[in-house]
Design brief:
Order of helices and strands: HHHHHEEEEEH
Strand content: 15-25%
Largest sheet: 5 strands, antiparallel
Length: 186
């Protein structure tokens, strides 16, 4: 009788595992974006920052990391390119934040601006960024007032960053597609 209970328990456990495995859902992907050649898939994933290679992680003579993954993030690149005229105070890719230093235009020396960009996701979409703009207004006696502003500047910055990020993403896909086609022709 106990063997029968064990058999039923094993059968039930197997059924539950198969059932739960089927709850994965279907990942719909575009076959054109994923090359069939494994070497090209590995290269593409490494360029996008989705993995690592054991042979490069084990090397003993390597001093420091290989931080090429930041260049694969379109939002990150577009943000830095958009505010490249401003001095940067703090930049942390792993923390997902860029903070500029106070920037003063030559035409208006009494006012300064500081921008903080926080990345909420790596996907190129409108809710991916949290941008804050701070103004500092000083009078001649060096009494300054700092305030956070909302409005058109934040909208313009977000639009510029997202537009550049979309262009970078398209360029990367086109480059990967060309590499894939070249590899298939060989």
């Amino acid at each position: 009788m106990s063997n029968f209970k064990n058999l039923i328990s094993i059968f039930f456990l197997g059924f539950v595992l198969i059932f739960l495995n089927g709850c994965n859902g279907f990942n719909q992907t575009n076959a054109r974006e994923f090359p069939p050649d494994p070497k090209l898939r590995v290269k593409k994933n490494l360029e996008e920052g989705r993995g690592f290679r054991l042979d490069s992680a084990i090397k003993e003579n390597k001093k420091g990391g290989d931080f090429l993954f930041a260049s694969a993030n379109e939002l990150w690149r577009a943000s830095l390119d958009t505010i490249d005229f401003m001095p940067l105070s703090s930049v942390n890719y792993s923390g997902g934040i860029i903070v500029t230093d106070w920037y003063t235009d030559e035409d208006n020396l009494d006012e300064s601006i500081k921008i903080s960009i926080r990345f909420l996701t790596n996907e190129v979409r409108t809710d991916a960024l949290d941008i804050k703009v701070f103004y500092k207004k000083c009078n001649q006696v060096a009494s300054c007032k700092i305030s956070q502003k909302t409005g058109s500047l934040i909208v313009e910055l977000k639009k510029e960053i997202l537009t550049k990020a979309a262009v970078y993403k398209k360029e990367r896909k086109d480059k990967n597609f060309r590499e894939y086609n070249n590899a298939m022709l060989k």
